[in-house]
Amino acid sequence: MADKALDKLKTQIRKLSRRTRGHSLARVIADLKETLLGWKAYFDAAEVLSPLRDLDKWIRRRMRCYVWKQWGRRGIVS
Predict the structure, then answer these.
(1) Group II intron maturase-specific domain: from which residue to which, for each copy (predicted)?
(2) Could you give the CA distance from residue 14 to residue 6 in angstroms, rounded to a whole number?
C-alpha cells in the first residue's frame, strides 16, 4: 500500500473527526464507517496488515480525543 494512499485516507479521516466539528459521536462514527468501508473495498486485494493495525490505533486515538473534547472540563476538580 502506497504512503500517498494512506496520507490521503488520513486527511479524509482528519476532516471527518475534527474535534470542533460539532456532531455527535454516533454521527462521526457513521461517517467514518462509510469512508473506511469504501476504502477497504478498493484496497481489499492488497494484503497489508501492519499499516492497517497502525491506522486502527490512530483512528481509535482520534475517537478518544473526540469524546474527551465533548466531555470538556466538566467533572474535573481542580
Answers:
(1) 7-73
(2) 12
> Are 63 and 29 a contacting pair, CB within 8 Å?
yes
C-alpha separations of 48 from 5, 9, 68 in Å = 13, 15, 31
* Cβ proximity of 43 and 5 under 8 Å: yes
Structural domain boundaries of the chain? 23-68
Neighbours of 30 (CB within 10 A): 13
Backbone angles phi, psi at 68, to 5 degrees: -60, -35
Task: Give tens-digit pLDDT for 36-75.
Answer: 999 888 887 777 777 888 999 999 999 999 888 888 766 5
